[in-house]
């Protein structure tokens, strides 16, 4: 059985759940009002093997590091370890998301092409939307081909805030 250590922090965008395993690898990061989605993803990925959620204050220093990100230490998220389940394609997309530099964006089509899967923008979008470790696996850095801020499970307002926070100036 997988024990997930959980904490919740206050951020400028609202309360944020942080769940990690006992090796302090992030398994889920989700906004409080979307915790139902987080539970759904946890059940999809871990129900068969079993998991439990255990309250923990600042497990492995992860809560503090995420707070540091919101306080302006943008590089800290590049150092945070993750361990995600998901399909091989989803994990490939999520790995590619971590390679998008802070302050930069890609379109879903550009990300698909970068993965050698031109024409798979919708599949990339679907994988992006099922990312269980938002912010750290920066799905907010992917936008529509027209430049529209689309497809962020935490809401477009949060996506815009995160992009501005990271130095991407929106037109």
TrEMBL record:
<dbReference type="Pfam" id="PF01035">
    <property type="entry name" value="DNA_binding_1"/>
</dbReference>
<dbReference type="Pfam" id="PF02870">
    <property type="entry name" value="Methyltransf_1N"/>
</dbReference>
<keyword id="KW-0489">Methyltransferase</keyword>
<comment type="similarity">
    <text>Belongs to the MGMT family.</text>
</comment>
<keyword id="KW-0808">Transferase</keyword>
<dbReference type="GO" id="GO:0032259">
    <property type="term" value="P:methylation"/>
</dbReference>
<dbReference type="InterPro" id="IPR014048">
    <property type="entry name" value="MethylDNA_cys_MeTrfase_DNA-bd"/>
</dbReference>
<dbReference type="GO" id="GO:0006307">
    <property type="term" value="P:DNA alkylation repair"/>
</dbReference>
<dbReference type="GO" id="GO:0005737">
    <property type="term" value="C:cytoplasm"/>
</dbReference>
<dbReference type="InterPro" id="IPR001497">
    <property type="entry name" value="MethylDNA_cys_MeTrfase_AS"/>
</dbReference>
<keyword id="KW-0227">DNA damage</keyword>
<dbReference type="InterPro" id="IPR036631">
    <property type="entry name" value="MGMT_N_sf"/>
</dbReference>
<feature type="active site" description="Nucleophile; methyl group acceptor">
    <location>
        <position position="139"/>
    </location>
</feature>
<keyword id="KW-0963">Cytoplasm</keyword>
<feature type="domain" description="Methylated-DNA-[protein]-cysteine S-methyltransferase DNA binding">
    <location>
        <begin position="88"/>
        <end position="167"/>
    </location>
</feature>
<dbReference type="InterPro" id="IPR036217">
    <property type="entry name" value="MethylDNA_cys_MeTrfase_DNAb"/>
</dbReference>
<feature type="domain" description="Methylguanine DNA methyltransferase ribonuclease-like">
    <location>
        <begin position="7"/>
        <end position="82"/>
    </location>
</feature>
<dbReference type="InterPro" id="IPR023546">
    <property type="entry name" value="MGMT"/>
</dbReference>
<dbReference type="InterPro" id="IPR008332">
    <property type="entry name" value="MethylG_MeTrfase_N"/>
</dbReference>
<keyword id="KW-0234">DNA repair</keyword>
<dbReference type="GO" id="GO:0003908">
    <property type="term" value="F:methylated-DNA-[protein]-cysteine S-methyltransferase activity"/>
</dbReference>
<dbReference type="InterPro" id="IPR036388">
    <property type="entry name" value="WH-like_DNA-bd_sf"/>
</dbReference>
<protein>
    <recommendedName>
        <fullName>Methylated-DNA--protein-cysteine methyltransferase</fullName>
        <ecNumber>2.1.1.63</ecNumber>
    </recommendedName>
</protein>
<comment type="function">
    <text>Involved in the cellular defense against the biological effects of O6-methylguanine (O6-MeG) and O4-methylthymine (O4-MeT) in DNA. Repairs the methylated nucleobase in DNA by stoichiometrically transferring the methyl group to a cysteine residue in the enzyme. This is a suicide reaction: the enzyme is irreversibly inactivated.</text>
</comment>
């Amino acid at each position: 059985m997988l024990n997930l250590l959980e904490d919740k922090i206050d951020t400028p965008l609202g309360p944020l759940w942080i769940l990690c395993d006992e090796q302090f690898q992030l398994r889920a990061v989700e906004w409080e009002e979307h915790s139902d989605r987080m539970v759904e993803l946890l059940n999809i990925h871990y129900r068969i093997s079993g998991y439990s959620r255990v309250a923990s204050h600042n497990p492995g220093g992860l809560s503090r590091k995420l707070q540091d990100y919101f306080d302006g230490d943008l590089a800290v998220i590049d150092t945070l370890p993750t361990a995600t389940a998901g399909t091989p394609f989803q994990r490939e997309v999520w790995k590619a998301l971590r390679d998008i530099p802070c302050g930069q964006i890609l379109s879903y089509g550009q990300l698909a092409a970068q993965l050698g899967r031109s024409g798979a923008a919708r599949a990339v979008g679907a994988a992006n939307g099922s990312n269980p470790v938002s912010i750290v696996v920066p799905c907010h850095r992917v936008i529509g081909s027209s430049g529209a801020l689309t497809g962020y499970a935490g809401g477009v307002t949060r996506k815009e805030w995160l992009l501005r926070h990271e130095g991407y100036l929106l037109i």
